[in-house]
Each structure stands twice: as C-alpha cells, then as structure tokens.
Amino acid sequence: MTNKKGIAAVAALVLAASGGFFIADYVHISNAASPVSGSASAPVQVTPVANRVPANQAEMKLSFAPLVKEAAPAVVNVYAFRKVVTRDQSPFFRDPFFQQFFGGGGFGAPRERVQRSLGSGVIVDHTGVIVTNHHVVDGATEVKVALADRTEFEADVVLDDERTDLAILKIRDLDKDLPHLEFSDSDNLEVGDLVLAIGNPFGVGQTVTSGIVSAVARTQVGATDYRYFIQTDAAINPGNSGGALVDMQGRLVGINSSIYTRSGGSNGIGFAIPANMVKLVSDAAISGNKVQRAWFGGGLQMVTSDIASGLGLERPQGVLVTEIYQNSPAEKAGLKVGDLILSVNGKEVSTPDGFGYRFATQPLGGDIPLEILRQGKARDLSIRAQAAPEMPPRDQRLIEGYSPFSGATVLNLSPAVAQEMGLDSGLNGVVVLEVRNGTYASRLGLKPGDIVRKINGQVVGNTKELKVLSEQDFRLWRLEIERDGKIIQTVVS
Predict the structure, then answer these.
(1) Under 8 Å between Cβ of 24 and 252
(2) Is 135 a catalytic residue?
(3) Which of 2, 274, 288 is nearest to 168 (CA)?
C-alpha cells in the first residue's frame, strides 16, 4: 500500500501510541568509522533562501499525517518469546556441605523461564508476510505480532537469514487481506531525501520520527555480513529493530536495523538495511525457496592511496581483483587478477562490501554488466548471475565417539556452503557447522566456521575421511585447524 499523492518537504513530528511492552531487543554498535568527505575543484554556489512566514492557510497545514495514515497500519509490533535455562545463584550451593545433601536437584538446579523481547516488523504482502530483523526473533520458541489496531496474531518464522539480519514471518490463520507497504528501489535514494522511521521504541507504542538520509552506502558498520546500509538521522531507538524506513511516497526504502550509540539511546545515527536486499529475502520466502545470491568467484581488495598511485590513478576508486577461482563466473567472464572493477550494473563501487551488496542483489539468471579498468584502459564486461554450486555435496555428519571432534557437525566445503557461512568461496576441505555443548569438541574449543586441515599429519579432504580418522584409537591427536585464515596447531591426549 502506498500514498500516490506525494508529500511536500515539511518539518513536523508525528507521534502515535498504541500500547506498549516492557523491553526492546536491539543491536547496538559501539564504534563506527567517520565519513570521509571529498573535495571539489570549485566551491559550490548555494542561493540563500530567506526565512518567511507561511503565505497562506494551506502552507500552515503542511503535515506528514496523510503519509503516516497510509504507511503506519503496515508496521506491526513483534513479540518474541524464548525459553532459557538458568541456575539458582545462591551462594549456599557453592558450599560443599550443601552440595553433599542437595546435589544437582536442590540449590543450583536448572530452571526454565521465558524471556520476552519486543521489536517491530513491516507487512510486505497482503497475505500476512512480515519482514523483521533476525536478532528480534533469534532463538524464539513463539512469535506474536500486533497490528496497529492492536489485533494480535501468532506467526511462524518461515525464513531466517542471519547474514543479512533479516527474518520473514507469516501470520497464522489469517482470514483477511492486510495493509502492506510496496518496495521502493533503494538505489534511487539520495543523501538529503526526507524519510520517516516507524516502529515501537522502548515499547511505548507505535511512533513516527522524521529525518533525512545522511548516507546511502555505509560499509563500515559490522551488523551484518553484507555491510551496506542507509544512514539516517531520523530518531531510532531500541525497539525500532525491524521497523520501516519509508520515503515521501509511502514506499519501503529500508528496514531499521541498528544505531550508533554510547548511551543506549538515539544519537541521530541510525542504519537501515536497503529495500533491494530486503526484497531479495522476502521474495525467496514468498516463493518457498531459500535465499540464493549471485556468486562472483574471486577475491577483491579495497584500493588505497598507495595502490591507486601504483596503478597510475589520480585517486582511489573501484575494487581490485586479487584472485580468480576456477570455473567461476568471474573466470568465465574473462576477468583477470589486477583488473579494477569500477561499477556493477552502472552503480559505482569503492569497497569489497559495496561490490558484494551490488552483486548479491542482482537477479539470478541474467547477465550483470561490469565496467573495469585493465592496464589503464576502460572495458565493459558481462558476468553471469548464477548461484554458487554445491560441489562437492555437503555430506553433513555428526562426529561421535571418543575423538576430539565428538559432538561437532561437519560439512564438505563448497562455494555454496562457503557463501552460506560467510567464508571465502575459494576454500575447500571440511568445515565445522555447529558444536554441541558439553562434548569433547566444545571442550577442545572448536567453533562454527573452523576448517579441519590435518589429523596426525594426514590431510582431511572430506567428511567421510574425518569420520574414519575420528574412529582411530590414537594416543595423541596432533590437530591442524584453520580459523579466520590462520592455522592453529594443537596436541590432544
């Protein structure tokens, strides 16, 4: 649903309350890089505008209210319920005398309680499809949504994409069409555009704040794997997570995700996931598929001043190709190490994160135009947008027994698995998917994303080989693990 009339530039704050909740779930970013401003060859001439009183009654009545009436009904409150296990922290339980008599059944016995949190969500389809943040519903055993008119529904999490910090909910047993927001092309958003942020900050009820777009390509914010955000100064606070950032036509331009703060409140620096990425995830959920993104198949590096000087450039620009993987779209497109990629589908890129976002949001099956610079000469190339292949097959296995890997679930690495786990798609071998608590693997310190390279000098090529080696009766286990590009060697007896 969208407001077709459009709203003129105004200066007003609209506040509407619809009930509340006692706690808000939110991501806080404790540090972020300062923006870098460029220089121009000549000063920009700005024509001053004189202050004046409203010329007529119509100007005095300018308001965001018509836009809010159209957009606000599509923004909901999301209630997430999680079951957590806690232990009694009584100091008496630590006394050996009490432990002798009560053991694990008295003081300190595990107790299950329900933890509640609150966020916001946006209806993007009349059938009750809702977009929110992954961190709002992460680990939830029950999810409820409340519409702007306070009607409550139970909802299911149909898709949860941690890499983008997005989750898609579907209302159960819906017997009517719901108001929803249409997607805007977030690539058309410009710095200085007016936007509204709609959500439920601090659980006080649905709230609307206004501001402008402060930046459109923030890549230094580490809230998701695809670090590419819209920055706004519209007041965003805890509880706004998953809420809507809308433009002056009432269309969804972003999902509010995180804030820069030292106090826990709004400092005027909020970040939203662009609508183009949100649409990719929601379309996958509506069609019943998993999220698939275009696979590049190469390594990239940011161009520094020194690199730019070495390449004969007047200033840093583009991203440098540092590696090309075999049989990848990058190789088939004719890209070479040392090429400088300047733009993706006509949009300039200046960081690997920016390239990753531009590339990942392109629809699969088509060709993506690239503008590159090779040996000082500009060229146009076309690269196929295809999903990362799952070769070799993942062959998921749970390692059991008495080896150091007991309790670890492992997969064969492929470009598809690497893309899902946020790893370099050029890696191969066996990767740890998850580790069960209280097992040998957890005591060893294994973590998801660790790659098992060698056991007692033998290279581990696939999950079957790891299982066979794990069943051996070694007195000493000499292990070689790769983590974040570094090799860790350890000996376990």
Answers:
(1) no
(2) yes
(3) 288
pLDDT tens digits for range 268-302: 688 899 999 999 999 989 888 888 889 999 999 99
**Alpha carbon distance 83, 72 (integer Å):** 31
Summarize pLDDT for 233-245 with one digit per residue, the tens: 888 877 788 899 9
Q: Can you say whether residue 34 is alpha, beta or left, with left for phi > 0 and alpha for psi between -120 and 50 degrees?
A: beta
CA distance linking residue 339 with residue 336, whole number of Å: 6
187, exposed or middle or buried, with CB in 10 Å at 0-12, 13-18, 19+?
middle
Catalytic residue among 125, 161, 165, 450: 165
User: Can you state the angle between helices 352-360 and 275-286, rounded to 10 degrees?
Assistant: 40
Active-site residue, from 241, 258, 266, 403:
241
Q: How confident is the model at residue 394 (pLDDT cuts 50, 70, 90)?
A: very high
State yes or no: pLDDT of 105 exceeds 80.
no
Q: Is the pLDDT higher at 376 or at 399? A: 399
Find where tokens 């580790």 sit. Answer: 435
Q: Is 134 a catalytic residue?
A: no
Mean pLDDT, the chain, whole residue set: 82
Residue 160: active-site member: no
Q: Going by C-beta distance under 8 Å and a sequence separation of 6 or more, which residues neighbour residue 54? A: 60
Give the residue carrying structure tokens 């005027």: 268
Domains of the chain: 14-27+62-95+109-291 (2.40.10.120), 298-384 (2.30.42.10), 397-492 (2.30.42.10)
Q: Phi and psi for 487 in degrees, rounded to 5? A: -90, 130
DSSP state of 389: P
Residue 450: which of 489, 415, 478, 416 has the closest Cα?
Answer: 489
Q: Which of the 8 DSSP states describes residue 262? A: S
Mean pLDDT across 74-80: 93
